[in-house]
Write a sequence for this structure.
C-alpha cells in the first residue's frame, strides 16, 4: 500500500514549494551552509558551473560532498532543486550516477529543467543524473531497489521528516554492504519541547524536528548501521534572534548542524565494544582532490603518508568500504597505546557534537607513526 501523506509532509511541501524560493527567505541562517563551509577545489569548480536558477536554491546546513566518489552510484534524500546532485554528477564522472528523490514538485521541476544544461557544462554525452518524486521514508514506492547505491547523501532534510526511523531504515536497505550515508542535519543538545514541534515555520527551518544528538546514535544502530562517525559540527550562535528566543523559552536548548558518516557494515562485522583495540591507519594520498589529507572525522584531516590511530571497529569499516584501496591498516603495538596522542580515542563513536565543535581531538602523527 502506498504511504499516506502526513500533515507534516503536506506542510513541508507547501513550505518548500511555495514559501521558500531562495535561501534569503529562511528566518534562521541554519540553511545557508555557505556561511560556514569550505569545499574541495573540485566541488567549488562544479558549483561555479551551476545554472543560476539552481544555485539560487542552494539550501542546506552542510557540505555533503564525500570523498572517493568517482564512478559511484549516489542517492540524494530530499534533493530539492538539485544543487548537491549536479555538483556530485560532476564529481562522480560519466561512469557514476546520481538519483535525487524529493516530494516537492516545484523543486523537482527546477532540477529536471536544467539536466541538459549541466550535462553540457560537464561535457557528458548522456545524463548521469535523474530526479524522482517520492518520500524519503518510502523509497520502495519510488522504485529504489535493495543494495543499489554506494553512497547516500542528505542535506538538512532528515530533520524535516516526521518518521526519522523509516528514513534510516530505508537508507540502510538501498545501500550496498560497505556503503555510506554521508549527511548533514540539525541536532539539539536535549529533546526539543513538544510545543515547538507543532510550529510549522520552526519545523520548516530545521529546528522543531531536530533530533537530540543521542537519538541519532540509537536510531542508526537500531536499523543496522555502525555507530555514527562525526565529521564536523557547527553550533548556531545565540545572537540569532530566533535561536536566542528559543534558548530563553525552552530551557537553554542549543542547536548545531553536524555532518556524520553512517556505514552499512558487512553482516559479520564486529560491533564496537569497550575492549575495541586500537589500529594504526595510514592514508596513501590517493583520493583525487585530497592528495594531502582526507577529512574522515572531526579529529581533523588524516595527512597522507602519516599514521593515525582508530578503534578497530572504525578501521574495519574503512576496509569494507570504497576507502579500502586508499588506506593501509595494521594492529597498533601494545607499547604505543599509553602514549598521550592515543588517549581518548575510544570516544570516537560517541562524541558530543556540541563539545567537538570547541575542542577537537587531533590524532595526526607528526613523523613516522602516530605514537612514535
Amino acid at each position: 500500500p502506498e504511504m499516506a501523506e502526513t500533515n507534516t509532509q503536506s506542510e513541508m511541501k507547501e513550505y518548500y514549494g511555495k514559501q521558500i524560493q531562495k535561501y534569503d527567505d529562511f528566518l534562521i541562517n541554519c540553511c545557508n551552509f555557505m556561511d560556514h563551509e569550505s569545499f574541495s577545489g573540485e566541488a567549488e569548480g562544479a558549483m561555479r558551473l551551476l545554472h543560476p536558477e539552481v544555485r539560487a536554491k542552494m539550501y542546506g546546513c552542510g557540505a555533503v560532498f564525500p570523498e572517493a566518489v568517482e564512478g559511484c552510484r549516489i542517492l540524494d534524500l530530499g534533493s530539492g532543486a538539485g544543487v548537491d546532485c549536479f555538483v556530485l554528477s560532476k564529481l562522480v564522472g560519466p561512469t557514476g550516477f546520481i538519483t535525487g528523490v524529493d516530494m516537492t514538485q516545484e523543486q523537482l521541476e527546477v532540477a529536471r529543467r536544467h539536466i541538459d544544461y549541466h550535462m553540457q557544462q560537464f561535457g557528458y554525452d548522456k545524463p548521469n543524473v535523474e530526479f524522482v518524486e517520492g518520500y524519503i521514508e518510502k523509497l520502495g514506492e519510488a522504485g529504489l531497489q535493495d543494495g543499489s547505491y554506494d553512497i547516500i547523501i542528505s542535506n538538512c532534510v532528515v530533520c524535516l521528516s516526521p518518521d526519522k526511523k523509516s528514513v534510516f531504515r530505508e537508507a540502510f536497505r538501498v545501500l550496498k554492504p560497505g556503503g555510506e550515508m554521508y549527511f548533514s542535519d540539525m541536532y539539539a543538545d536535549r529533546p526539543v519541547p513538544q510545543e515547538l514541534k507543532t510550529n510549522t515555520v520552526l519545523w520548516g527551518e530545521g529546528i522543531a524536528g531536530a533530533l537530540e544528538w543521542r537519538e541519532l546514535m540509537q536510531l542508526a544502530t537500531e536499523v543496522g548501521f555502525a555507530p555514527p562517525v562525526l565529521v564536523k559540527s557547527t553550533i548556531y550562535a545565540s545572537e540569532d534572534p530566533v535561536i536566542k528566543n528559543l534558548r530563553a523559552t525552552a530551557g537553554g536548548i542549543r542547536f548545531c548542524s553536524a555532518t556524520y558518516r553512517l556505514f552499512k557494515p558487512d553482516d559479520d562485522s564486529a560491533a564496537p565494544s569497550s575492549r575495541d583495540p586500537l589500529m594504526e591507519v595510514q592514508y596513501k594520498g590517493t583520493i583525487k582532490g585530497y592528495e594531502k589529507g582526507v577529512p574522515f572525522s572531526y579529529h581533523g584531516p588524516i595527512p597522507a603518508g602519516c599514521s593515525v590511530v582508530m578503534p578497530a571497529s572504525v578501521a574495519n569499516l574503512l576496509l569494507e568500504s570504497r576507502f579500502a584501496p586508499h588506506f593501509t591498516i595494521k594492529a597498533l603495538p601494545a607499547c604505543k597505546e599509553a602514549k598521550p596522542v592515543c588517549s581518548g580515542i575510544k570516544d570516537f563513536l560517541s562524541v558530543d557534537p556540541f563539545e567537538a565543535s570547541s575542542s577537537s581531538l587531533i590524532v595526526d602523527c607528526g613523523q613516522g607513526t602516530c605514537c612514535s
